[in-house]
Design brief:
549 residues, mainly alpha, Serine Threonine Protein Phosphatase 5, Tetratricopeptide repeat, 3 domains, two-stranded antiparallel sheet, 27 helices, elongated
Length: 549
Amino acid sequence: MKRLQTFIVILFVTIAFSVFFAMSNNRAIATAPFFKGMGTHHHAISTKSPQAQRYFDQGLVLAYGFNHAEAARSFREAIKLDRDCAMCNWGLAYVLGPNINAKMDDEAVPEAYGAIQRALKLAEKSNPSEQSYINALATRYVAQPLEDRSALDLAYAEAMAKVAQQYPDDLDAATLYAEALMDTMPWDYWTEEKTPKAATQKVLDTLDSVLQKDANHPGANHLYIHAVEAVRPEQAIAAADRLGGLVPGSGHLVHMPSHIYIRVGRYRDAVVTNQNAIAVDDEYITQCHAQGVYPLAYMPHNRHFLWFAATLEGNRKIADEAGKTLAAGIDPEMMREPGLGTLQHFYSIPLFTMTRFGEWDEILQAPQPAVDLKYPTGLWHYARGLAYTRQDKFSKAEAELQALTLLANDPELEEVTIWDINTTQNILQVAAKVLTGEIAAQQGESAQAIASLRQAVVLEDALNYDEPADWATPARQYLGAALLEAKEFAAAEQAYREDLAIYPDNGWSLFGLRQSLQAQGKDAAAQKTQQQFEAVWQYADVQLTASRF
């Protein structure tokens, strides 16, 4: 799977940052609290205030957990407690900058620049390592916003490389260097041949060295997961197993192991991990009434992940609840804003749930989305087309397919994207091929069905990597079922094995694989596969008769 060769920079995050920075300029904001469950990570700084030190540690850990807005609040509080603390100002400047999930907001530039300039003036009161941190970060900022920050981000990465080299026992310096490198190429760490880029190898080597010295470093474990999840997720299993318990008060860090679990077939662990993360974040929002990026992006991401993991383990109840809660939290006006196509995707998740679990009557009772919401409307037609197909109402199914196809070819949907990773047009094109194939299969037209579903597989494979996957019901599971119905058992086996390479140990394809092996007389292999299926399907609340409903 390919990744976009550009920054993940979505207007969704830009708008969210604008909300936060508008709030941050309001001096009436309450004092930052000390949170429970922030772990034991400590970075000693030059300060006479124990409270400032505590806020600094909390801010750094919050930043490692990508809650940059809350981290900024902690660093501001540290500055109030010790006006002479250079590193407290460094921390504020650091978290106002770009990260792998968002560009730097223009409104943050003056505050970030001001903070690092204050840090430079106060640096004479700091030790040499702190001065190195401050001088390095100063290369990242200028007084006015720039359209292209790439030179600044690269300069900062190069400066942090020198800091990490100068202080080899400072694991935060090494971690920040790795992060700075990742910020120069967000989500673009691997070549087409699935080998690490030169800079990525430096990231991996650096993070490996940190984890060898301190396996429980929260920032290094987090970044390592992101660095390898797309191509080599098995390398981060140990990091995932550690990270979930290191900072139990950070919802995002509690969630992060599921990025690996879902890639290595540990769907139950992914479900539980996200249930825990949701509970942590719900408590956080209740306590702080936070606004900005974290509640608008990271928290819905947890529910989306919970939903996806639950579908893969066959748990309709959990998936249904997660999907409906996710959709219900979407602001109907915000999802119409340019750049916020991801919200339309979240809004449509209940349709994916119903098609995944064969809830045909419920689909036909679902109201049509507003006409201007073309992507949800396309998925609505897709779901209805499948429902009519299963009811052998082929003329109605064809009408839904025709409506879906029109939307799948609508050029406006090229501009409606999911996290700026895949266009919603691409998603609807996969849907159209799946529906075409399923209509043909239901009518006994095996050759046409198989051809269309193979095209769906090609389109699905062409989608850029995202977690959870933007097309949530793997086309190979439909293809395998059609091949079984056509008595092409060996080809069905291949389809299922390919799907299991992408989603290891998923019960849908294990069930189909067992059917294909049994049909070929491979009884021993079929029995072993059945045992695998029973193990992974133990949390399911549905019974399968095929690899798709």
